[in-house]
Amino acid sequence: MKLFIDTANVAEIRRAADMGVICGVTTNPSLIAKEGRDFVEVVKEIASIVDGPISAEVISLEADKMVKEAQEFIAKMPEFEDNIVVKLPFCEEGLKACKMLTDLGIDTNVTLIFSAAQAILAANAGATFVSPFLGRLDDIGTDGIALIEEIVEIFNEQLIDTEVIAASIRNPIHVTTCARIGCDIATVPYGVIMQMLNHPLTTSGIEKFLKDWDGFEKK
Ligand code: G3P
């Protein structure tokens, strides 16, 4: 399973990219706003760090405006036009924009997916990626993993090319479970990547190796 990082913080993206563990980035308006920086400037900097799909979300609510907004921001970073994926909110206008952008050869990520039926609609509109939000379903007492499993099963059964990005990841168990059930991609916050990295037995194991080697060298 491929890993993307779910953040607009370039320091976090750089650290994850330097470890070689991510091959794409997802952002959303909340994550961009948190950085307090110009949208195009941040997306450009992210694309200069990671040579993979970078999801940048539109904030317009009508299809024509979504397409115009996407074309305008892509035009401001022509050197990264092959990396930019236009993230669209799941809704009727978002689906219309998805079809229009697909016809223009522009990649899309339809986000805020909370049911398999929505994922089927997005795939039929030509979405390159769909982003079901598993953590937000868990938050309201619904089984988020069951949704990922259902979409993965349907897409496999129907030979649908649209890739499934498990989003709204809260912990390493979400990541490993998504991998076990055959999800294409998990987009993971930096904090969860660090949780995946750390294990107390690894830390104490390194300390013991160094301590034993230190004692041996002094003999
Ligand atoms: O980027 C979309 C998604 O991953 C948001 O996650 O934590 O706000 O539910 P969260």
Q: What is the number of beta strands?
A: 8
| Integer-rounded radius of gyration | 19 Å
Low-confidence stretches: none
First-residue to last-residue Cα separation? 47 Å
Total helices: the number is: 11
Helix-strand pattern: EHEHHEHEHEHEHHEHEHH
Helix content bin: 40-55%
The structure class reads alpha/beta
Roughly what fraction of the amino acids lie in strands? 15-25%
Taking the sheet with the most strands, its summary is:
8 strands, parallel, barrel
Question: Mean of residue pLDDT?
Answer: 97
Major sheet: arrangement of strands: 1-2-3-4-5-6-7-8
Given the C-alpha coordinates, what overall shape results?
globular
Bound molecules: SN-glycerol-3-phosphate
Summarize the topology:
Elements: E1 2-6, H1 10-18, E2 25-26, H2 29-35, H3 39-49, E3 54-57, H4 63-75, E4 84-89, H5 92-103, E5 108-113, H6 116-124, E6 129-132, H7 134-139, H8 144-157, E7 163-166, H9 172-180, E8 185-188, H10 190-197, H11 200-218
Parallel strand pairs: 1-2, 1-8, 2-3, 3-4, 4-5, 5-6, 6-7, 7-8
Helix pairs in contact: 1-3, 4-5
This protein binds SN-glycerol-3-phosphate.
Would you summarize the structure shown here?
With 219 residues, the chain is α/β, with parallel strands linked by helices.
Structure characterization notes:
α1 (10-18) links the parallel β1 (2-6) and β2. The protein is globular. The longest helix is centred in the last third of the chain and has 19 residues, at 200-218. Helix content is 53%, strand content 16%. It is an alpha/beta fold. It has helices at residues 10-18, 29-35, 39-49, 63-75, 92-103, 116-124, 134-139, 144-157, 172-180, 190-197, 200-218; strands at residues 2-6, 25-26, 54-57, 84-89, 108-113, 129-132, 163-166, 185-188. The chain has eleven helices and eight strands. α1 (10-18) runs parallel beside α3 (39-49) and α4 packs across α5 (92-103). It has an eight-stranded parallel barrel, surrounded by seven helices. The protein binds SN-glycerol-3-phosphate (G3P). Residues 6, 26, 28, 133, 135-136, 167-168, 187 line the site of SN-glycerol-3-phosphate.
